[in-house]
Design goal:
Layout lengths: L1 H46 L5 H10 L5 H28 L4 H19 L6 H16 L9 H25 L5 H22 L7 H25 L4 H5 L1 H30 L3 H18 L7 H26 L4 H32 L19 H25 L4 H14 L6 H26 L6 H19 L5 H15 L9 H24 L7 H20 L5 H18 L6 H29 L7 H16 L3 H19 L8 H11 L15 H8 L1
Helix pairs in contact: 1-2, 1-6, 1-17, 2-6, 2-18, 3-4, 3-5, 3-6, 4-5, 4-14, 4-15, 5-6, 5-15, 7-8, 7-11, 8-10, 8-21, 10-11, 10-13, 10-21, 10-22, 11-12, 11-13, 12-13, 13-25, 14-15, 14-19, 15-19, 16-17, 16-18, 16-19, 17-18, 20-21, 20-22, 20-23, 21-22, 22-25, 23-24, 24-25
């Protein structure tokens, strides 16, 4: 018995050791693969006699990642940025070969625009913009005294960067590849399983508001994470590329279904709080077949084999049950509440069936080209924030350029190049000033290591193999730190500083004076980037941007009320989820800002989708011309209220919706519009929602009664 107890107690320790060993093995594998790519790119560049092999070697560090798909995605966008930057550099030199002032002005503007573009994306597309600015600088600045050499400079830089990208991609795809497709499949599978389980467990009806808010955040993160993974995996896996649109459709249907799911439970919660128990219990009975249909193991292939037939049966049973359940009610208000809830539940089961159908399509062994509906995942980018990054980077480059011209500083080019790299690289981080200072500390450490390596180690060695032996211990330190979350920024600075200032080439020169001058110039460039983030703070992570993002989120109701209908559902859902994920990432969990965001997100999702469905029904069926002004007034006042919420706007929106409901009731054959309007009305009167701050002091139950 004692031995059994010892064995039982030792199991968690053994699991911990195994997990720790797995993490350590993955970290060391990353180090080994990066070192192989680094030295292989350098060896090939030297064999080809490229002028700056260190550029190819540095490229392998910049695109380094544990996952092969991430390396390929970064490499793809880096290649695009490199080509674009080289073309622009040639154009700038061609237009201003003898006008240094105009040359630096236009180059600074281009670098600023690229830095601004980098802030618009939260995935590897930002690399294309960073490299577009950086490449233009490394091509154009060295030939400022010799404009005729710009083509040779562009050809050399393109060759070196593309060589580094190709070597990194090949090494990561061949040497113990870690596939992102496995992460994508696991993420999609977990999203599906968790959502289906949550729906199944919620068939009792009411869900506490706090639990609903947490579920909403989890659904938002899942949707955005899946899209980010999809955009990276398509570079490493042919099957993922073939299924790319199926994945987008799967994700869009997930977002639509989760929004309707929230609306269903908010409606039931409101009815229970307003003591409308008869209507609430009747809707829960109507909801019950969904729980029964989902009461099955969620496993590979279950979507098509088990869940789809069950959901189809549940949908038919629900539609058949509606007349009988409705006949059991005799109160006019209960009938109105039931009709609204039944319409919402039937929409929900239709969307859930479509979502499971999309999951089934992903589980099929073969992909039928063009079989999925074409959809997009739109982002909620803030162009004014990008404009701030553009202005900051342009100003930094102009100041450095003016100082270079005025002082005739021989190392001014190095300072501008480093400022260009880091001004663009960290423009999209929430706290770029702090990150830049940390990276600069790592950069200084890496340059110190490079000094020791170059003048005390490499001077004693001869030949490429011995050079590899001499450089590896120094570079490995930075790569190991990159794999430690708390030291990642420090490690990136170390690795980049070491590789950049070491500047390995075919005929290595050992000039301590030049080394020190170049190091000082690079530190000044890094410092200029850090100071620029302090002088002109970035919008990302600021209270100002959070207010703008929250305003943009509220404006989604105006989008739902007024934008053209084609593709509106997909655009509304994806932008909503992207905006919420941005603000959540930039706020402290549980803070007032975070709670306000979640509360507004729930209100926007529910009201916006209700308005979209209302407009779709209006477009599909003829609406009496005498009724249209009241419907349009309701849409217009709701849009204006959400754009600029205040007590007066709330009253206008509430009264406009009530008037539209009364007007619809006076026209035969337009009852299909009442359900959407009634849902919007109840959302407006929800005393626990974020809209309660704008309501007059009227009890909820009385107001809900008036809504009928």
């Amino acid at each position: 018995m004692a031995a059994a107890n010892i064995t039982t107690r030792s199991l968690p320790t053994r699991d911990t050791v195994v997990e720790t060993f797995r993490e350590e093995a993955a970290a060391w594998l990353f180090v080994v693969k990066t070192l192989i790519a680094f030295f292989l790119a350098g060896w090939i560049a030297m064999r080809l006699e490229l002028p700056s092999p260190s550029t190819a070697m540095l490229t392998t560090i910049i695109v380094a990642n544990r996952q092969s798909g991430m390396v390929l995605a970064k490499s793809f966008y880096r290649a695009i940025g490199t080509l674009a930057g080289a073309v622009v550099a040639v154009g700038i030199v061609a237009f201003f070969p003898q006008q240094r002032d105009l040359f630096l002005l236009v180059l600074s503007l281009w670098i600023g625009v690229c830095a601004g573009g980098a802030t618009l994306y939260r995935n590897f597309k930002s690399y294309a913009f960073v490299l577009g600015g950086y490449t233009a600088a490394i091509v154009a600045i060295p030939v400022i005294e010799n404009p005729l050499g710009v083509f040779d400079s562009a050809t050399a830089r393109i060759s070196e960067v593309l060589l580094g990208l190709l070597v990194s991609a090949a090494v990561n795809d061949v040497v113990f590849p870690s596939r992102m497709r496995d992460v994508l499949r696991r993420t999609a599978r977990d999203q599906f399983a968790h959502f289906v389980e949550f729906i199944r467990d919620s068939t009792g009806g009411a869900i506490p508001r706090e639990a609903m808010e947490k579920a909403h955040l989890r659904f938002v993160r899942n949707a955005v994470m899946l899209e980010d993974l999809r955009s990276s995996v398509i570079f490493e896996d042919a099957e993922a590329r073939a299924r790319s649109n199926h994945l987008r459709l799967f994700n869009q249907r997930f977002m639509a279904t989760s929004t309707t799911f929230h609306s269903v439970h908010h409606l039931i919660n409101r009815l229970q709080r307003a003591r409308r128990d008869t209507a609430a219990k009747t809707l829960i009975r109507l909801y019950a077949p969904i729980g029964s249909a989902l009461d099955a193991p969620i496993e590979a292939g279950a979507a098509a084999r088990v869940l789809l037939p069950r959901l189809a049966t549940a949908r038919d049973d629900m539609r058949a049950a509606v007349p009988a359940l409705r006949a059991s009610l005799d109160d006019a208000q209960d009938l109105r509440d039931f009709d609204t809830g039944a319409t919402l539940l039937l929409r929900f089961v239709d969307e859930l069936h479509d979502y499971v159908d999309a999951a089934a399509a992903l589980q099929t062994p073969r992909v039928i080209a063009g079989s999925a509906e074409r959809v997009r995942f739109d982002r909620g980018n803030d162009f004014l924030g990008a404009g701030i990054a553009t202005a900051r980077t342009t100003l930094t480059m102009l100041v450095l350029g003016a100082f270079w011209i005025a002082s005739a500083w021989p190392m001014g080019a190095s300072a501008m190049l480093l400022a260009t790299v880091f001004a663009g690289l960290f423009a999209s981080t929430p706290n770029p000033s702090r990150v830049t200072w940390i990276v600069m500390l790592g950069y200084l450490s890496g340059m110190t290591a490079a000094f020791v390596c170059e003048f005390f180690v490499l001077t004693q060695l001869d030949g490429y193999p011995l050079m590899v032996v001499g450089v590896t211990p120094f570079l490995a330190v930075g790569l190991i730190m990159m794999m430690t979350p708390s030291l990642a920024s420090l490690g990136l600075g170390w690795a980049m500083g070491f590789a950049y200032v070491l500047a390995l080439k075919n005929l290595q020169t050992y000039d301590p004076a030049h080394f020190i001058n170049d190091a000082i110039a690079q530190v000044i460039g890094l410092g200029a980037a850090a100071i620029s983030f302090m002088v002109i703070p970035p919008a990302i992570g600021s209270a100002w941007l959070r207010r703008r993002q929250l305003a943009r989120l509220r404006a989604q109701v105006a989008l739902a009320a007024e934008a053209p209908l084609p593709g509106l559902r997909h655009r509304f859902e994806s932008v909503n989820h992207d905006l919420v994920s941005q603000v959540v990432a930039q706020t402290q969990p549980g803070s007032a800002d975070s709670r306000a965001l979640i509360a507004w997100a729930l209100a926007v999702h529910e009201t916006g989708r209700a308005l979209i469905e209302l407009r779709h029904d209006m477009s599909r069926q003829s609406v009496p011309s005498t009724l249209l002004p009241y419907l349009e007034a309701a849409l217009r006042t709701l849009a204006r209220f959400y754009e600029n919420p205040d007590a007066a706007g709330y009253l206008l929106a509430r009264d406009a919706v009530a008037t539209a409901i009364a007007s619809v009731g006076e026209h035969d054959g337009t009852g299909y519009l009442l359900d959407h309007l009634h849902l919007v009305r109840m959302a407006l009167l929800d005393g626990e929602s974020v809209l309660a701050a704008y309501m007059p002091d009227v009890p909820l139950a009385k107001e809900v009664a008036h809504a009928s």
